[in-house]
Every structure is written in structure tokens, then in C-alpha cells.
Amino acid sequence: LLGWGRAEFTYDDQLPGVVKDPTGHNFVVGFGLLPYLEVAGRLATNTINSNCFTQGCSTRDLSASAKVGFGLDPAYRFRIAAGLSDIGGAATSFRAYYGVLTYSEGPYEASAGLAKRGSTAASGNRSPLDGPFASAAWQPAPWVRGQLEYTDGNAWAGVRLFAPAQWLPEGWQAYAGANLRLNDNNLTHRSWFTTGLTIPLYKVPSLPGAGQAGHLVQ
User: Fold this and answer.
1) What is the mean pLDDT of the chain?
2) pLDDT value of position 212
3) Residue 3 and residue 12: Cα distance in Å, rounded?
4) How far apart are CA 142 and CA 119, in angstroms?
5) Exposed, middle or buried: residue 205 (CB in 10 Å: 0-12, 13-18, 19+)?
6) Which of these, 1, 48, 102, 203, has the minimum number of CB atoms within 10 Å of its CB?
7) Angle at the Cα of 135 (from 39 to 31), degrees rounded to 5?
């Protein structure tokens, strides 16, 4: 869950789930709106140079998502969350419903959950998230994090490099990363890049199980 009082902006040069051509621009902005609530908006588009009214623009999907989550123990090592992606909009190409349990301890984090994909769009686009899914991450140093993800028989790996805290205003976090597809599927290209920026919007009190850090689910 994205930390309460924080906003995160992410960009990928990839549209996971666009089966004809996943090359494109994936813009997401999320907000830790309340202690246990995250909301986000997303623009997924193959091109940003067409207006979609007088020109063809392939995939263009503007949507919202939401997630609620709670800590299950005082140390906030176990967390449970449920969410819905691709709310509203005309296309709903990537809708999915999910529940997930996460465990974190020191530099390690693992999640497992169950998802149900919404209807596949007429274009064939669909959410990659369906059925049992899992992820694992290891952050051996403040500046690097590695991760593995599995869903619907497909798997990806990724690495994130974080900017040193002294390079940024207090409370800010920025990263750049690369992702690699580990099996044959038409949901993504073999590799792509991602960037992200998290900023604090306002100071919040500490609440049991609310969490003050997190990463956006796209």
C-alpha cells in the first residue's frame, strides 16, 4: 500500500497486456489518500502523438484503480490488501480484482494472492493479473532492489536503482529500473525500462498497521 500522505508517479515504456504491440507509454499517478486507502489514475497508450478522434491511435486507456490494506501485527510485517484496477473509462482493457497477503522482514518481502481478470477487450487486450500470483523482493542496500513476479503462468524479473537520499528533498524517493520477461508470452516485450518518483504531500501521524512506505500497484 502506498504510504499515507504520499504521492507516486511512475512511467514505463511498455503496456503489459496489450497483445498486438505492448510498446507504448504507461503513466500512473497514485496517492496514499487515507491511512488504509490508495487511489491511482493511469493513462496507457501506444502513442502520445495522435488525438484518437481524427487519427487512429491503437490502444489508449484512461482509468482509475483503488486498494485498501491493513497491517495484521504491531510490527507491520504481515499485511493484507484488496484492490480493483481499471475502474471506469470506456475501454476497461485491464480490469482485475485481487486480494493479497504480504510479509516483509528486513531486506526481504514476499507476497501471494488471488486475482480475477475482467472481460477481455475486443482488441484482445487484457490484464496480466489473473489466478494465483506471487512476488518476492530483496533490497540488500538502500540503493538497489531486485524482484521476481509470477501470475497466470508468466514470470518477470526486475531491478530498481534508487537515488541517494542526499540528492533529493527530505522524504522524496526516485528510482530507475529495468524489467525482464522470463518466459515466452505476448503480454510484454523481452525487456523494458521504468522510472518512478515518490514525494510526501503532508505530514501524517503514526497509526498502527497504517504503514508509511509502499509501492504503487499498476
Assistant:
1) 88
2) 46
3) 21
4) 40
5) exposed
6) 203
7) 15
Q: How does 33-54 read in b/e, with b if 16+ C-beta sit within 10 Å?
A: bebbebbbebbbbbbeeeeeee
Question: What percent of the chain has pLDDT above 70?
Answer: 87
**Single-letter amino acid code for the residue at 177:** G
How far, in Å, CA of 197 to CA of 154, rounded?
27
**pLDDT tens digit string along 149-196?**
999 999 999 999 999 999 999 999 999 999 999 999 888 999 999 999
How far are the Cα atoms of 8, 11, 108, 143 from residue 174, in angstroms, in the given order? 9, 12, 20, 10
CB-neighbour burial class of residue 1 (10 A; exposed 0-12, middle 13-18, buried 19+) = buried
134: its cell numbers: 506471487
Strand partners, 180: 157, 191
Q: How far, in Å, CA of 146 to CA of 215, rounded?
A: 14
Residue 79 one-letter amino acid: R
Residues 6+ apart with CB under 8 A from 63: 41, 42, 44, 85, 86, 87, 88, 89, 91, 92, 94
- Lowest-confidence segment of 32-36, 59-63, 105-109, 121-125 by average pLDDT: 121-125
Are 152 and 128 within 8 A, CB to CB?
yes
C-alpha span between 68 and 118 (Å, rounded): 19
pLDDT value for 17: 84
pTM for this predicted structure: 0.85
